[in-house]
Amino acid sequence: MARGRRIYNYHCYFCHGYDGDARTLASTYLDPPPRAFTALNPEEVSRARFLRSVAHGRPGTAMMGFAGILSEQEIAAVVDFVLEYFVRRKLPNTRYHIPENGWPNHQRYRAAFPFALGEIPLDTPDVELTEAQRRGKALFMESCITCHDRARVRDEGVHWETRPVSFPRGGYSHRLRGRGTDTVSAATPYSKHDRPPQVADLTAQEKLGEQLYQENCAFCHAADGSGRNWIGRFLEPHPRDLTDPRFAARMDRLKLVRAIRDGVSGSAMPAWKQVLGDAEIEAVAAYVERVFFRVSESRDEVE
Protein backbone atom coordinates (compact mmCIF):
# COMPACT_ATOMS: atom_id res chain seq x y z
CA MET A 1 0.00 0.00 0.00
CA ALA A 2 2.81 2.43 0.85
CA ARG A 3 4.47 1.78 -2.49
CA GLY A 4 1.20 2.24 -4.37
CA ARG A 5 0.51 5.46 -2.49
CA ARG A 6 3.90 6.91 -3.44
CA ILE A 7 3.30 6.08 -7.10
CA TYR A 8 -0.21 7.54 -7.01
CA ASN A 9 0.94 10.74 -5.32
CA TYR A 10 3.62 11.22 -7.97
CA HIS A 11 1.85 10.19 -11.19
CA CYS A 12 -1.92 10.20 -10.71
CA TYR A 13 -3.17 12.86 -8.31
CA PHE A 14 -2.89 15.76 -10.76
CA CYS A 15 -5.92 14.48 -12.71
CA HIS A 16 -7.62 12.08 -10.31
CA GLY A 17 -7.25 14.21 -7.20
CA TYR A 18 -5.16 13.77 -4.11
CA ASP A 19 -8.07 11.94 -2.44
CA GLY A 20 -9.19 10.11 -5.58
CA ASP A 21 -12.28 12.30 -6.06
CA ALA A 22 -11.14 13.98 -9.33
CA ARG A 23 -11.79 17.42 -7.86
CA THR A 24 -8.86 18.92 -9.72
CA LEU A 25 -8.10 21.79 -12.04
CA ALA A 26 -7.28 19.30 -14.81
CA SER A 27 -10.70 17.65 -14.52
CA THR A 28 -12.44 20.92 -15.36
CA TYR A 29 -10.67 21.06 -18.73
CA LEU A 30 -10.86 17.41 -19.76
CA ASP A 31 -13.78 15.82 -21.60
CA PRO A 32 -14.58 13.22 -20.49
CA PRO A 33 -13.29 14.13 -17.02
CA PRO A 34 -10.89 11.86 -15.12
CA ARG A 35 -12.42 9.01 -13.13
CA ALA A 36 -13.56 9.84 -9.59
CA PHE A 37 -12.54 6.65 -7.80
CA THR A 38 -14.46 7.49 -4.64
CA ALA A 39 -17.73 7.54 -6.62
CA LEU A 40 -17.32 3.97 -7.92
CA ASN A 41 -19.32 1.04 -6.60
CA PRO A 42 -16.83 -1.57 -5.35
CA GLU A 43 -19.14 -4.38 -6.49
CA GLU A 44 -18.93 -3.16 -10.09
CA VAL A 45 -15.17 -2.64 -10.32
CA SER A 46 -12.80 -5.05 -12.05
CA ARG A 47 -9.16 -5.18 -10.95
CA ALA A 48 -8.20 -6.65 -14.33
CA ARG A 49 -9.77 -3.69 -16.11
CA PHE A 50 -7.94 -1.26 -13.82
CA LEU A 51 -4.65 -2.97 -14.61
CA ARG A 52 -5.31 -2.70 -18.36
CA SER A 53 -6.32 0.96 -18.06
CA VAL A 54 -3.19 1.93 -16.19
CA ALA A 55 -0.92 -0.10 -18.45
CA HIS A 56 -2.42 0.83 -21.82
CA GLY A 57 -4.56 3.91 -21.21
CA ARG A 58 -8.21 4.54 -22.10
CA PRO A 59 -8.97 5.38 -25.76
CA GLY A 60 -11.02 8.53 -26.19
CA THR A 61 -9.87 9.97 -22.86
CA ALA A 62 -6.83 11.76 -21.46
CA MET A 63 -5.81 8.59 -19.60
CA MET A 64 -2.40 7.64 -20.94
CA GLY A 65 -0.73 4.25 -20.73
CA PHE A 66 2.02 3.77 -18.14
CA ALA A 67 3.42 0.47 -19.39
CA GLY A 68 6.59 2.18 -20.58
CA ILE A 69 6.94 4.19 -17.38
CA LEU A 70 5.98 1.82 -14.56
CA SER A 71 6.86 -1.84 -14.11
CA GLU A 72 4.13 -4.49 -13.84
CA GLN A 73 4.73 -4.63 -10.07
CA GLU A 74 4.38 -0.85 -9.77
CA ILE A 75 1.18 -0.84 -11.82
CA ALA A 76 -0.25 -3.56 -9.61
CA ALA A 77 0.76 -1.65 -6.48
CA VAL A 78 -0.93 1.61 -7.51
CA VAL A 79 -4.07 -0.21 -8.70
CA ASP A 80 -4.36 -2.06 -5.40
CA PHE A 81 -3.87 1.18 -3.47
CA VAL A 82 -6.61 2.93 -5.45
CA LEU A 83 -9.01 0.01 -5.08
CA GLU A 84 -8.41 -0.38 -1.36
CA TYR A 85 -8.27 3.24 -0.20
CA PHE A 86 -10.52 5.12 -2.62
CA VAL A 87 -12.93 2.61 -4.15
CA ARG A 88 -13.63 0.20 -1.28
CA ARG A 89 -12.90 2.12 1.94
CA LYS A 90 -13.44 5.71 0.69
CA LEU A 91 -10.48 6.88 2.80
CA PRO A 92 -8.68 10.20 2.41
CA ASN A 93 -5.09 10.15 1.26
CA THR A 94 -2.28 11.20 3.54
CA ARG A 95 -2.30 14.93 4.26
CA TYR A 96 -0.57 16.92 1.56
CA HIS A 97 0.32 20.03 3.55
CA ILE A 98 3.00 18.44 5.70
CA PRO A 99 6.58 19.55 6.48
CA GLU A 100 7.98 16.92 4.10
CA ASN A 101 6.07 18.59 1.25
CA GLY A 102 7.24 22.06 2.22
CA TRP A 103 4.44 23.03 4.63
CA PRO A 104 5.97 23.28 8.12
CA ASN A 105 3.09 25.30 9.59
CA HIS A 106 0.02 24.91 7.44
CA GLN A 107 -2.33 26.04 10.19
CA ARG A 108 -1.25 29.64 9.69
CA TYR A 109 -3.44 29.59 6.57
CA ARG A 110 -6.53 28.44 8.48
CA ALA A 111 -8.46 31.62 7.65
CA ALA A 112 -8.21 30.70 3.95
CA PHE A 113 -9.43 27.11 4.38
CA PRO A 114 -13.17 27.87 3.75
CA PHE A 115 -12.30 29.26 0.31
CA ALA A 116 -9.91 26.45 -0.60
CA LEU A 117 -12.46 23.81 0.45
CA GLY A 118 -15.33 25.49 -1.35
CA GLU A 119 -17.29 26.23 1.81
CA ILE A 120 -17.49 29.91 0.83
CA PRO A 121 -17.74 30.83 -2.89
CA LEU A 122 -14.72 32.83 -3.95
CA ASP A 123 -16.83 35.44 -5.75
CA THR A 124 -18.91 36.22 -2.68
CA PRO A 125 -19.07 40.05 -2.44
CA ASP A 126 -16.94 41.44 0.37
CA VAL A 127 -19.98 43.15 1.88
CA GLU A 128 -21.43 39.70 2.59
CA LEU A 129 -18.29 38.50 4.38
CA THR A 130 -17.24 39.05 7.95
CA GLU A 131 -13.99 40.84 8.66
CA ALA A 132 -12.31 37.50 9.40
CA GLN A 133 -13.63 36.02 6.14
CA ARG A 134 -12.38 39.01 4.17
CA ARG A 135 -8.92 38.47 5.64
CA GLY A 136 -9.18 34.78 4.75
CA LYS A 137 -10.17 35.60 1.19
CA ALA A 138 -7.23 37.98 0.82
CA LEU A 139 -4.91 35.30 2.21
CA PHE A 140 -6.33 32.75 -0.24
CA MET A 141 -5.80 35.12 -3.17
CA GLU A 142 -2.22 35.85 -2.07
CA SER A 143 -1.01 32.40 -1.07
CA CYS A 144 -3.33 29.57 -2.11
CA ILE A 145 -4.88 30.32 -5.48
CA THR A 146 -1.90 29.03 -7.49
CA CYS A 147 -2.91 25.46 -6.63
CA HIS A 148 -6.53 25.99 -5.55
CA ASP A 149 -7.58 28.17 -8.48
CA ARG A 150 -10.71 26.11 -9.11
CA ALA A 151 -12.29 27.15 -5.84
CA ARG A 152 -16.08 27.17 -5.81
CA VAL A 153 -17.78 30.23 -7.25
CA ARG A 154 -21.39 31.28 -7.70
CA ASP A 155 -20.92 32.31 -11.32
CA GLU A 156 -18.39 30.49 -13.51
CA GLY A 157 -18.45 33.31 -16.09
CA VAL A 158 -16.82 32.89 -19.49
CA HIS A 159 -14.33 30.05 -19.96
CA TRP A 160 -11.93 32.07 -22.06
CA GLU A 161 -11.15 35.76 -22.14
CA THR A 162 -10.22 36.94 -25.62
CA ARG A 163 -6.74 38.42 -25.77
CA PRO A 164 -4.71 38.99 -28.93
CA VAL A 165 -1.45 37.07 -29.03
CA SER A 166 -0.37 38.22 -32.49
CA PHE A 167 -1.47 41.26 -34.52
CA PRO A 168 -2.42 43.70 -33.20
CA ARG A 169 -0.20 43.40 -30.18
CA GLY A 170 -1.43 46.64 -28.64
CA GLY A 171 -5.12 45.77 -28.86
CA TYR A 172 -7.51 45.95 -31.79
CA SER A 173 -9.90 48.73 -32.73
CA HIS A 174 -11.50 48.94 -36.16
CA ARG A 175 -12.27 52.60 -35.44
CA LEU A 176 -8.59 53.58 -35.67
CA ARG A 177 -8.86 53.37 -39.47
CA GLY A 178 -5.60 51.51 -39.90
CA ARG A 179 -3.58 53.97 -37.83
CA GLY A 180 -1.56 52.47 -35.01
CA THR A 181 -3.61 49.31 -34.60
CA ASP A 182 -0.31 47.51 -34.14
CA THR A 183 1.46 49.73 -31.65
CA VAL A 184 4.82 48.13 -32.39
CA SER A 185 5.21 48.59 -36.13
CA ALA A 186 1.88 48.50 -38.01
CA ALA A 187 3.70 46.14 -40.37
CA THR A 188 0.87 43.72 -41.05
CA PRO A 189 -1.03 42.51 -44.11
CA TYR A 190 -4.29 43.35 -42.34
CA SER A 191 -3.74 47.08 -41.90
CA LYS A 192 -4.49 48.02 -45.50
CA HIS A 193 -7.99 46.58 -45.13
CA ASP A 194 -8.67 48.78 -42.10
CA ARG A 195 -8.66 51.93 -44.22
CA PRO A 196 -12.11 53.02 -45.45
CA PRO A 197 -12.51 53.96 -49.12
CA GLN A 198 -12.49 57.65 -49.90
CA VAL A 199 -15.57 58.33 -52.03
CA ALA A 200 -16.63 61.84 -53.03
CA ASP A 201 -20.18 63.11 -53.48
CA LEU A 202 -21.89 60.74 -51.08
CA THR A 203 -25.51 61.57 -50.46
CA ALA A 204 -26.71 62.39 -46.96
CA GLN A 205 -28.11 58.88 -46.65
CA GLU A 206 -24.85 57.32 -47.85
CA LYS A 207 -22.81 59.46 -45.44
CA LEU A 208 -24.97 58.18 -42.59
CA GLY A 209 -24.46 54.66 -43.90
CA GLU A 210 -20.71 55.22 -44.03
CA GLN A 211 -20.65 56.29 -40.39
CA LEU A 212 -22.79 53.35 -39.28
CA TYR A 213 -20.85 50.83 -41.37
CA GLN A 214 -17.44 51.94 -40.16
CA GLU A 215 -18.56 51.99 -36.52
CA ASN A 216 -20.39 48.67 -36.55
CA CYS A 217 -19.83 46.53 -39.64
CA ALA A 218 -16.13 47.12 -40.31
CA PHE A 219 -15.24 45.06 -37.24
CA CYS A 220 -15.91 41.88 -39.26
CA HIS A 221 -16.26 43.00 -42.89
CA ALA A 222 -13.19 45.32 -42.76
CA ALA A 223 -13.22 49.02 -43.46
CA ASP A 224 -12.72 48.34 -47.18
CA GLY A 225 -15.55 45.77 -47.30
CA SER A 226 -13.25 42.86 -48.17
CA GLY A 227 -13.56 40.93 -44.89
CA ARG A 228 -9.78 40.52 -44.97
CA ASN A 229 -9.06 42.36 -41.75
CA TRP A 230 -7.64 40.74 -38.62
CA ILE A 231 -10.97 39.79 -37.03
CA GLY A 232 -12.51 38.63 -40.29
CA ARG A 233 -9.76 36.11 -40.92
CA PHE A 234 -10.50 34.38 -37.61
CA LEU A 235 -14.22 33.86 -38.25
CA GLU A 236 -15.51 30.72 -39.92
CA PRO A 237 -17.15 31.07 -42.31
CA HIS A 238 -15.33 34.26 -43.20
CA PRO A 239 -17.41 37.43 -43.34
CA ARG A 240 -18.81 38.24 -46.77
CA ASP A 241 -16.45 40.03 -49.15
CA LEU A 242 -18.79 42.86 -50.10
CA THR A 243 -16.54 43.81 -53.03
CA ASP A 244 -16.84 40.37 -54.65
CA PRO A 245 -18.61 40.84 -58.01
CA ARG A 246 -20.29 37.45 -57.63
CA PHE A 247 -21.91 38.64 -54.42
CA ALA A 248 -23.00 41.95 -55.91
CA ALA A 249 -24.49 40.19 -58.95
CA ARG A 250 -27.00 38.24 -56.88
CA MET A 251 -27.88 40.96 -54.37
CA ASP A 252 -30.42 43.72 -54.62
CA ARG A 253 -31.41 46.37 -52.08
CA LEU A 254 -34.23 44.24 -50.65
CA LYS A 255 -31.98 41.21 -50.04
CA LEU A 256 -29.26 43.39 -48.58
CA VAL A 257 -31.63 45.11 -46.17
CA ARG A 258 -33.06 41.74 -45.12
CA ALA A 259 -29.59 40.30 -44.41
CA ILE A 260 -28.64 43.31 -42.27
CA ARG A 261 -31.95 43.38 -40.47
CA ASP A 262 -32.42 39.64 -39.79
CA GLY A 263 -28.87 38.30 -39.91
CA VAL A 264 -27.59 35.29 -41.88
CA SER A 265 -28.19 31.81 -40.52
CA GLY A 266 -25.12 29.60 -40.20
CA SER A 267 -22.71 32.52 -39.99
CA ALA A 268 -21.49 35.09 -37.48
CA MET A 269 -23.69 37.75 -39.12
CA PRO A 270 -26.14 38.87 -36.41
CA ALA A 271 -29.51 40.55 -36.81
CA TRP A 272 -29.26 44.32 -36.43
CA LYS A 273 -32.97 45.08 -36.16
CA GLN A 274 -32.73 45.56 -32.39
CA VAL A 275 -29.74 47.89 -32.75
CA LEU A 276 -30.42 49.98 -35.86
CA GLY A 277 -33.64 51.56 -36.99
CA ASP A 278 -35.16 50.95 -40.43
CA ALA A 279 -33.76 54.20 -41.81
CA GLU A 280 -30.30 53.37 -40.48
CA ILE A 281 -30.38 49.89 -42.03
CA GLU A 282 -31.43 51.42 -45.34
CA ALA A 283 -28.53 53.87 -45.04
CA VAL A 284 -26.00 51.07 -44.49
CA ALA A 285 -27.39 49.19 -47.50
CA ALA A 286 -27.17 52.34 -49.63
CA TYR A 287 -23.53 52.86 -48.60
CA VAL A 288 -22.60 49.23 -49.33
CA GLU A 289 -24.24 49.41 -52.75
CA ARG A 290 -22.64 52.74 -53.65
CA VAL A 291 -19.12 52.08 -52.38
CA PHE A 292 -18.48 48.33 -52.38
CA PHE A 293 -20.70 47.19 -55.24
CA ARG A 294 -19.12 49.89 -57.39
CA VAL A 295 -15.73 48.43 -56.51
CA SER A 296 -16.98 44.98 -57.47
CA GLU A 297 -18.19 46.34 -60.82
CA SER A 298 -14.71 47.75 -61.48
CA ARG A 299 -13.11 44.43 -60.53
CA ASP A 300 -15.51 42.62 -62.82
CA GLU A 301 -14.59 44.88 -65.72
CA VAL A 302 -10.88 44.27 -65.12
CA GLU A 303 -11.41 40.53 -64.96
How would you summarize what this structure contains?
This protein is 40% helix and 0% strand.
Structural class given helices, strands, pairing?
mainly alpha
Identify the quaternary structure here: single chain
CATH superfamily of the largest domain: Cytochrome c-like domain
Kindly give the count of domains: 3
Shape: elongated
CATH topology of the largest domain: the name is: Cytochrome Bc1 Complex, Chain D, domain 2
What percent of residues are in strands? Answer: under 5%
Q: Helical region count?
A: 11
Under the CATH scheme, which architecture of the largest domain would be assigned? Orthogonal Bundle
Number of DSSP strand runs: 0
What's the end-to-end separation, in Å?
A: 77 Å
Biggest β-sheet, characterized?
none
- Rg is 30 Å
- Helix and strand succession? HHHHHHHHHHH
Architecture overview:
Helix content is about 40%, strand content about 0%. It has about 300 residues and is an all-alpha fold. The chain folds into 3 domains: about 1-90, Cytochrome Bc1 Complex, Chain D, domain 2, CATH 1.10.760; about 100-145, no CATH class; about 195-300, Cytochrome Bc1 Complex, Chain D, domain 2.
